[in-house]
Amino acid sequence: MLEGATMSSRVGPPLFIAGCTVPSAPVSTARRDFPHHRAIPTRWNDNDIYGHVNNVEYYAFFDTVINAWLIEAGGLDIHGGDVIGLCAESHCAYAAALTFPEVVTAGLRVGHLGRSSVRYEIAIFREGDDAPAAEGWFVHVFVDRETRQAAGMPDALRASLERLVVTGA
Amino acid sequence: MLEGATMSSRVGPPLFIAGCTVPSAPVSTARRDFPHHRAIPTRWNDNDIYGHVNNVEYYAFFDTVINAWLIEAGGLDIHGGDVIGLCAESHCAYAAALTFPEVVTAGLRVGHLGRSSVRYEIAIFREGDDAPAAEGWFVHVFVDRETRQAAGMPDALRASLERLVVTGA
Amino acid sequence: MLEGATMSSRVGPPLFIAGCTVPSAPVSTARRDFPHHRAIPTRWNDNDIYGHVNNVEYYAFFDTVINAWLIEAGGLDIHGGDVIGLCAESHCAYAAALTFPEVVTAGLRVGHLGRSSVRYEIAIFREGDDAPAAEGWFVHVFVDRETRQAAGMPDALRASLERLVVTGA
Amino acid sequence: MLEGATMSSRVGPPLFIAGCTVPSAPVSTARRDFPHHRAIPTRWNDNDIYGHVNNVEYYAFFDTVINAWLIEAGGLDIHGGDVIGLCAESHCAYAAALTFPEVVTAGLRVGHLGRSSVRYEIAIFREGDDAPAAEGWFVHVFVDRETRQAAGMPDALRASLERLVVTGA
Question: Does residue D15 lie within any of the structural domains?
Fold first, then answer.
């Protein structure tokens, strides 16, 4: 994860995504841009040998804020429900380091809501910071638990996701 | 992770990256497109409640194939070296499910080699499959361990990365 | 992790530790028996294929409640301090299952405080339960960061541990 | 995990288990004492901030060598079988540190085989070492997947465990 001055390498034209004319992460995202927030306390073994939360764990934070919302607000039954969500694609851009034992906040919104898929946008905030330490996105495709074929979302689930759609996001 | 028919959702124009005129992952990648391979046995707790390797673990596979190469081929000293690699950005597109206790193979190549950064491309293959179960990329920025400012790569490290550059990748 | 009726297998004489005349975990432990508590929200990938928090993660909870205390109450500097704590031995007995996204509470006390080592006792409680879902212990040996030889604890660290000693525990 | 001189603290009478008249781990265990071995390559994020494999990951190694055996040798169907194994109790004593990217070996044997439970003994060996870096044990209780009541083991599963019973272990 990048810190301090290295953060500036993310300002300006995108370096790494050839053929892409938009920055991979908007520079102006703030806490208020996300309709749902969830506190995520870091754990001892999130830290890697370099003393900060390992890049992989950010995706565990994404999984956690997304699925907790689906379960608690959308009624997703992960144990026996007919429809489950599988990850099709995910992405994260890192701007600042996190360190155990701090408590971070994950912001969640929906960028695109399709018939059987949804594209979430997530940001991770350090306590007291309004600029994200990391920003990413995550695509869920909802499928039938047994056949693993794309399936429509249950109504309650869809309704919970509509609450997170941000116009112009 | 997507399976079966849902895999077809990744064929054709990219759906999710507005403004981007190239697919997020080439459709023709095969084992031979990667100059380095590393076997990665899955672990019991890679499986999540849906019975397959959790999407987060693929990034742990990326970290593992990359850093093992840097240490074993490039002489990176993760315990005391002056220069360390931090992750600036990562991405993964999932095409097929993995299941413990299978042994997967991670393919690694370098898509772009800069002065102090490198963009790796990684694919995860199931045993016997030539088409990847997942494809992703990962950007390392090399920094001074103490100041965390961007730093040039040690010669041995750079040489090891040059061996993985694929022309036209 | 055991649930329901299988929990009764932990009542009565200890089955599995030959030669041992004390139960591996007291049957009467409750929240009030622990001077320190920390909330630990579960994460999506704590769940394993059987739908509950994997047995391994309980040890991550132990590590987290212990080290957060050492850092926040005892001034342990995990990044640069001269003395660090290494795990010499750990143990856990499981009585009930946990499931994402519930928030559990870890109780922490000190069973034995030596010159350079400490034996913590930890219990994990489900929300609303006074009987632990799991009980365990964990031995830290404090060592010099460079030589890894046993070292005395810094005064502030020792003082923080003395606050957790329970007489008759 | 302990290293160097601190290892000697595990020789002689057990320090930490009051009331227990046997050592928590035999001091003479070697590779040949285990009828089954499995190579487990470490991963980048096994390392914690102190530069070595975190104590928690050893339990992930236990889970992996045990369940891989049950699946591959005993026919355990973790996706749909009627009987599953839940962890009732686990333990680990640490003698030496492990570091990514080394490949370790897990040795597995059965110390006690009951009607619906089994007590495994596991040791972790570093490459080239005959003395274990860690020793532990793990109790599985087999239960009905739906009711979670103790259940008899399927014949093939029991037969696979009988192959690991070590007389006098």
Answer: no
| Contact at CB, B86 and A137, closer than 8 angstroms | no
Q: Which of D44, D60, D72 sits opposite B43 (nearest CB)?
A: D60
Confidence of residue B167 (pLDDT cuts 50, 70, 90): confident
Residue D127 is which amino acid? E
Report yes or no: A3 and A96 within 8 Å, Cβ to Cβ. Answer: yes
Integer angstrom CA distances of residue B55 from A92, B89, B134: 13, 16, 10
Task: Report CA-CA distances (Å) from B38 to B4, B19, B107, B124, D126.
Answer: 26, 35, 7, 10, 20
Residue C3 in any domain: the answer is no
Structure tokens, C130: 């006074």
Angle between the A55-72 and A155-162 helix axes, to the nearest 10 degrees? 120
- Interface contact flag, D48 A45, Cβ < 8 Å: yes
Mean pLDDT within C62-89: 97
In a domain, B53, yes or no: yes
Residue C42 domain-assigned (yes or no): yes
CA distance B98 to B119: 25
Overall domain count for chain D: 1
Q: ipTM for the complex?
A: 0.85
- Summarised one tens digit per residue, pLDDT across range B77-112 is 999 999 999 999 999 999 999 999 999 999 999 999
* Positions of chain A with pLDDT lower than 50, given as ranges: 1-26, 169
Distance (Å, whole) CA D164 – CA A143: 41
CATH number at residue A94: 3.10.129.10
Q: C22 — contact with chain B (CB < 8 Å)?
A: no
DSSP bridge partners of C110 = C120, C165
The pLDDT, as a whole number, for residue A140 is 98
Instruction: Spell out which residues of chain B touch residue D101, defining contact as CB-CB under 8 Å.
Output: 64, 67-68, 71-72
Range of the domain at B114: 31-162
Per-chain mean pLDDT for chain B: 86
In the beta sheet, which residues pair with residue D87?
D140
pLDDT: which is higher, B3 or B148:
B148
Give the Å distances, CA to CA, from B20 to A19, B159, C112, C167: 6, 32, 61, 65
Helix (H) or strand (E) holding C85: strand C83-94
